[in-house]
C-alpha cells in the first residue's frame, strides 16, 4: 500500500464491543480518521474498511462483478437461512433476484395501497383516548399485518395468528443487547435449550420454519394461480431453464421478506412519526399537503406528494435503519482514494456517516425535510437501502408503506409525544431503532381547524 489506512488504535475486540453497544458513538468518534478508515468491527478480518466518500462509494457499488465481489452476509444467514437472497452470489443471486422482482413493482404495488391504509386505521382504532403507547411496537404490528397479507395473502386463521405472535416474539428478543451481540460474537451463540437466550432464539426460529413450510405445502397442494400474493407469484415464477423455486428456497426468501420487510419498515415509520411530532411546524405543513388532495385520496396520489416524500427521506437520512451497506470484497488489487487495497479486503459503505457529511447535509443533526426539495442527491450521497447488486429488493414496497402509513396517521389522528426528551438511536439486531420506542399519547381523531 502507498500509505497505511488509519483507524482507531484500540484492540479489535474492544472496537467490536463499542460498535455493538453504541454504534453511532463509535462511528462519530472514528470519523476523525477520514472518509475511509480501518474498523475491524464485523467478522474476523485483518483489513476491514468503512468508507463514506461518495466517489469511492460509486466505485464500490458499481463494480460488483469486476473489482469487487458481494460475498454472502454471514450475520443475516443466522436469521434467514442458506437460500436467502442475502446468501447468494453471482448467477444464482441474479436468477433469484429476477424471480423476486415483479411483485415489488408496477400494478402489484398499486393493489397494496388500500390494504395498507385500511390496516393502519384498524390498528390505530384499537387505541383508547388518553392511552400512552410505544409507536415502534404499534408500527411493528401494522407492518407485520401488511407484510403477511402481501407475502402470504393471509389475514386470519390459526396459522396467521401463530406466525404473527412468533415473529414478533423473535424480533423482540433483540431488544436485549446480549441477543444483538450474539449476531456478531460467535461465542455467545450457545444453545442450552429454551432457557438460554440463543436457545430461545433457535426454538422460535424452528417454530416459524414449521409454520411457513406448512403454508408452502398447503399452497402446493391447492395451487391457485389467480391469487396475487407474493408466495403465489414466487411459486409461479420460472427461470430461463423453466425451473421454479424449491421449498427450501421459498422458505428462506419468505422468511427474509417477512423479517427484513416488517422490522425495518416499522422502525422507519416510528422515526418519521417521532420527527414530525417533535417539530410541529413540519406536522402542520404535512397535514396541509395531504388535505389538499381532498377526502378519501387515492393511495397513489398520496405516494407522489413531494413534502411527504421529503419528510420520509429526511427521516431515513438522519437515522438510516441500516448503518452500513452489505460488504464488498476486493477481487483484484484496486486503488481507492489513493490507497492500494489488497485482494481479500472487506469494505462496507457507511450509510450513517455519509448521511451526516456536512458538505452534503449542513447541520446534519437537524431534521429538515426541505433539503430534499432544494436539491437532488445521487445514489452515493443518499442510499438508505444500500446500493449495487445488494440494494434492498423491497425498497419500493417499504417506501410505499412508509408514506401511506405516515400520511394515514397524521391526517386522521391526533397524537402527542409523551415526553419532550429527544429520542436516542440504539442498536436493535442489525438496525438503528429509537431507544424508548417513541412513547406517544393518543388523543382521538384529528379534526382540522379549517
> Nearest-angstrom radius of gyration?
22 Å
Low-confidence stretches: none
Distance between the termini: 66 Å
Mean pLDDT: 86
How would you sum up this structure in a few lines?
This protein has 450 residues and is an alpha+beta fold. The protein is 49% helix and 10% strand.
What would you note in describing this structure?
- This protein is of the alpha+beta class and 450 residues long.
- It has a single domain, classed as Cytochrome p450, CATH 1.10.630.
- 49% of the residues lie in helices and 10% in strands.
- The strands form 4 sheets. It has a 5-stranded mixed β-sheet. The chain has a 3-stranded antiparallel β-sheet with strand order 4-12-9. Strands 6-7 form a two-stranded antiparallel sheet.
- Helix 7 packs across helix 19 and helix 8 runs antiparallel to helix 13.
